[in-house]
From TrEMBL:
Pfam families: GIY-YIG, UVR, UvrC_RNaseH. It comes from Paenibacillus konkukensis. The keyword DNA damage applies. PROSITE patterns: GIY_YIG (PS50164), UVR (PS50151), UVRC (PS50165). Signal peptide: none annotated. PANTHER family: UVRABC SYSTEM PROTEIN C (PTHR30562:SF1), UVRC/OXIDOREDUCTASE (PTHR30562). Residues 257-413 form the UvrC family homology region profile domain. Residues 24-101 form the GIY-YIG domain. This is UvrABC system protein C. InterPro entries: GIY-YIG_endonuc, GIY-YIG_endonuc_sf, GIY-YIG_UvrC_Cho, UVR_dom, UVR_dom_sf, UvrABC_protein_C, UvrC, UvrC_RNase_H_dom.
Length: 490
């Protein structure tokens, strides 16, 4: 015990010495346990204030569990808060710390991709790479993506084969391929088709539909009815594919709407995917968190977009919780003056999150305060709360079912044991008390008992009756023929 106390005092003294040397610069810090394993990675605009906050003031139960395991820490200074944000994401993906939010790729959505090749082609994929290809999506399911691709194949005859064959295929005869395997195709033609496909997938299908309608009327005036019918079919397919999604906003901007909720040490992040102004899908991630809820939420966003080049035009985020700031300020005032500086630094860091994400992702970040956009963020947060409540209800329901099943099993075993012991006692009582062994009785009594047994047996066959009489006369406790009604069996 004395050696353990001395060791803890030495570790505390070492941490205090390192805290005094922390710089007032942005960067990342890495918390380690007694084995030297990195258990938490965080970022800070001011390293000195942020790291000190872990060892001063009061914390929640889950944060306290993290602090108890911290034996040592390291830090890396960066030039800006943006670099700290990117570095934190990379360090989390490298070390997978126990107490950090770890993004799991539990679900992937389909995208439509225009490959970056000499002869580009369209394909549906669930993996997004930084290969200079153009990605459009995500789509709610593979069927919707395949139907859209099938429509584009009818409108724009890009190649379909992964490797160019030796001769033209059936798609060329159907008018759905320009056959680069046999004919020379100008790069300008490819560029025109790629631009029109991009315009279509970015919400310009109404313009494409108007062009097709104009061409259909021109073909009809020229009495080219087969071409007019083909164009009419294209228009019908566009309507069939695009009318299945419900428009939720007046504009046609691609957005990702984030919301989150926390309860009992768990966080649920909801992502609402809006493409071309239409809400097409949502994604849910539930995980335990140990640090500050808003910082862990931002950490989730950085990991989510780190390997996803298919970025939307806008991202909506919820504002930092005001209640959490008030609680943090009250705790800081109750502790040391340094804790007040820590709270101010944390608030300043949250204020710079918007600028840091915009600088890194090169997309517009909005933290709406009112109106329709705020309602969309609130809807995502409400979905997160509902998902958490459902999770806890399911856990409680499973526990109740388990407890009830154990109680029923115990009661059943007790009843079975009691019934078995009662039957055994009853049989022993009948055999030994009511019907004692005949050898212990006088001869006259045994003869009377045998006569009574023969009269009571009611056996139809005389042989069976004789066997019963012989068995009972011999004084056996079990009749050799169970078809008779011997008193021993009654």
């Amino acid at each position: 015990m004395v050696e353990g106390d001395q060791e803890r005092k030495q570790r505390a003294e070492a941490i205090r010495n390192k805290l005094a040397l922390l710089p007032e610069k942005p960067g990342c810090y890495l918390m380690k346990n007694k084995e030297g394993t990195i258990i938490y990675v965080g970022k800070a605009k001011v390293l000195r204030n942020r790291v000190r906050s872990y060892f001063t003031g009061s914390h929640s139960a889950k944060t306290q569990a993290l602090v108890v395991e911290i034996v040592d820490f390291e830090y890396i200074v960066t030039a800006s808060n943006v670099e700290a944000l990117i570095l934190e994401c990379n360090l989390i993906k490298k070390y997978h710390p126990r107490y950090n939010v770890l993004l799991k790729d539990d679900k992937s959505f389909p995208y439509i991709k225009i490959t970056n090749e000499k002869h580009p082609r369209l394909e549906v994929t669930r993996r997004v790479y930084k290969d200079k290809g153009k990605y459009f999506g995500p789509y709610p399911n593979a069927f919707a993506a395949q139907q859209t691709k099938k429509l584009l194949d009818r409108l724009y005859p890009l190649r379909k084969c992964k490797t160019l064959p030796d001769r033209v295929c059936l798609y060329y005869h159907l008018g759905q391929c320009v056959a680069p395997c046999e004919y020379e195709v100008a790069s300008e033609e490819y560029e025109r088709m790629v631009q029109e496909i991009s315009r279509f997938l970015n919400g310009g299908h109404d313009e494409i539909k108007q062009d097709l309608t104009r061409k259909m009327h021109e073909a009809a005036e020229e009495l080219n009815f087969e071409r007019a019918k083909e164009l009419r079919d294209h228009i019908v397919h566009i309507d069939a594919v695009m009318e299945k999604q419900k428009i939720t906003t007046l504009d046609a901007v691609d957005r990702d709407v984030f919301g989150y909720a926390v309860d009992k040490g768990w966080m649920c992040v909801q992502i609402l995917y809006m493409r071309q102004g239409k809400l097409i899908e949502r994604h849910t991630s539930t995980f335990p968190y140990y640090g500050d809820e808003y910082e862990d939420f931002i950490s989730f966003i950085t990991q989510y977009y780190s390997d996803n080049p298919a970025l939307p035009k806008e991202v909506f985020l919820p504002a930092e919780p005001a209640a959490g700031e008030e609680e943090g300020d009250a705790a800081a005032e109750a502790q040391l003056p340094a804790a007040e500086e820590d709270g101010a630094a944390a608030g300043s860091l949250k204020t710079d999150v918007k600028e840091a994400l915009e600088s890194w992702l090169k997309v517009k970040i909005h933290i709406p305060r009112r109106g329709l956009k705020k309602n969309m963020v609130d809807m995502a947060c409400d979905n997160g709360r509902v998902a958490l409540e459902e999770k806890f209800r399911l856990i409680e329901r499973d526990e109740q079912r388990t407890i009830k099943a154990v109680e029923n099993l115990g009661n059943g075993l007790a009843r079975a044991s009691f019934t078995a012991s009662r039957r055994s006692t009853t049989r022993i009582f009948k055999a030994r008390t009511l019907y004692p062994r005949w050898s212990s009785l006088p001869t006259a009594s045994r003869t009377a008992r045998n006569t009574a047994n023969i009269k009571f047996a009611r056996c139809k066959a005389p042989t069976i009756m004789k066997r019963c009489a012989k068995s009972c006369a011999a004084g056996t406790s079990v009749c050799s023929r169970r078809t008779c009604r011997c008193p021993i069996w009654s």
